[in-house]
Amino acid sequence: MVFTFRSLRAAFLMLIIAVVAVTVIPAAHAGGAQKGHAETEHANEAKIRKSVAAFLDVPESVVESVTRIPQAELYEVVLVNGELFYTDKAASFFILGNIIDTKTWRNLTGERLDKLARIDFKSLPLEQAVKRVNGNGQRVIVTFEDPNCGYCKHLSGELQKVKDVTIYTFLYPILSDDSVTKSRYIWCAENKAATWMAWIIDGKAPEARNCDSAVIDRNVELGKKLRVTGTPVLFFANGARIGGYREASILEQMLVEFSTKAGK
Question: pLDDT, tens digit, for every residue of 112-168?
């Protein structure tokens, strides 16, 4: 079953309390979690998981986690696609929006989403990606791109301007059957990087070639696991993620902030 934040929001419109900010209420001090309290919290989380799954008409496995948070006796609910919202222990309402700490103006929800979006960069199977190197290639960026994605074409043009970076592109065909075909032809080319650039920059279609292109299927599964729901998506060496097209100057700033040497 495919579900998105948009469809989730639409489903909630009939009864949801949508907020832009929730005032942070300091949590009461606890000298240590007692067994009875822990059991109660576990029961509440299980009940919420079941209620959310029933409301969304999905298996309970779609609810990745339910966690009590310090603010306003709320529970954070995270779905397997990375969407996050809040509810009470009875799951009697749902809150979409950001929790803002009114003392520090920290966006606690945004910080949590950033953490959830991060990946273990070292675990990426880079052998499944098309590799190209600008300059000395000391820094590294990983991209997930569909060959028929317009913003991917813009991104590739900007990446050409970024110096001293190794770029690993996972061919991630999610837009159409033609995207799958092009991805397989690019992967089977003698020079994958040149064929990818000829298509994505110059619009020269890849030649039809046959080879073991099961890597494309593995890329799709990997992207799903990493919650890549659109293209382009970029990952940096520290595991940070950004979605969408960025200009070369912005990418350079992000590389300075996020990246380490490619080492590959």
Answer: 877 887 889 999 999 999 999 999 999 999 999 999 999 999 999 999 999 999 999
Is 3 exposed, middle or buried (CB count within 10 Å of its CB: 0-12, 13-18, 19+)?
Answer: middle
Q: Which residues pair with 77 in a beta bridge?
A: 66, 85
Tell me how far apart the alpha carbons of residues 193 and 68 are, in angstroms, rounded to a whole number.
47
* b (16+ CB within 10 A) / e for 182-219: bbbbbbbbeebeebbbbbbeeeeebeeeeeebebbeeb
Measured CA to CA, the distance from residue 82 to residue 131 in angstroms comes to: 28
CA distance 207 to 189: 8
Global pTM reads 0.71
Sole residue written with tokens 């954070």: 76
| Measured distance CA(211)–CA(108) in Å, rounded | 48
| Bond prior to 70 in cis (omega within 30° of 0) | no
Report the candidate in 82, 79, 76 with the shortest Cα–Cα distance to residue 108: 76
Q: What is the largest CA-CA distance in the chain?
A: 68
Which amino acid is residue 215, in one-letter code?
Answer: V
Which residues, 6 or more positions from 77, have their beta carbon under 8 angstroms from its beta carbon? 48, 52, 63, 65, 66, 84, 85, 86, 87, 94
